[in-house]
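Worked example

This section walks through a single chain of length 299. The input is the sequence exactly as stored; nothing has been trimmed or padded.
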Amino acid sequence: MMRHNSIRKTFKGTLTTTLVGRSITVLCVRHLFSHAQQGLRWLGSKTVASIQTDYAARVYYNTLIPFEGSLVKYGVITVKDLISDLTHWDSLYLSGRLHKPVKFFSTTVEVADAQAHNLNMALAAARLTLPAAFTEVELFNAIAVISYAGDPRMIAGENPDKVRNIVAGNIEGFTTLYTPLLRLDPTITVLGSGRLEQDTSGKARARQLQRLPSRTVSRIEARLDPARVTDPANYVLRPDFAQVLQDELRGIVGPASTTQTLKGIATAGLVKTVRYALEKLGKMASGYVSRWSRSTAAS
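Given that input, the structure is written out below as tokens.
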């Protein structure tokens, strides 16, 4: 609690702050740290503001910031842009991160409503990739992977077990976040002992599809029913439907993550970028070593 209070005091003037692990996202900040613009500050405030709001995921991230004996990173975004990503999945950069359990220090009604909508969409998207019977862990993994599928850093720069580790380390948080939503849906049954069953009829799956952002639904329809003559209850049962859905989500995540990564080089500066990249590569190597150890032990 002391650490959370310190963060809240440090980011005075914030409207909303969320904490995800060591990552802090700050909205509508009036007073930023003096190092917030260190990569681009020589270009002037107008240019920095333009780079933040006009490119990539519209987030200004600063990494490797010393804070109370450890290193954190924080991001700055306007409330308008955050709400847009939460409700339309413009980039899935922050909305995807908020599919996971996070700590909210404060918020607004508009952001809270948008976040509730975001969670319902994540749950629908995950369920559309799962069979009739599945476990809570399988569901949480399907939710957590949404914001990483298509991210080039998952190829080179991230622990290959990142999604698995996120879920395994926070089962209770995921359960608290999603169980109330599951219990409100008559098309899914919570059996207990971490097992669930869902209605996989065309009608039920079509209803889940319509919960997704309209642009995503339109792109899926353009691929599976370009003439718009087929009832969605039919094409959602196609064997390739889940793959098409995942491809569309990758199409959102990939470009945004790539351009945001490139923007990060400019905003953080070369030295920090290299240091941060080396830290990520170290985690990736550690992940592959862990995988090798598990496979060796299993054999």
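What to look for: The chain has 13 helices and eight strands.
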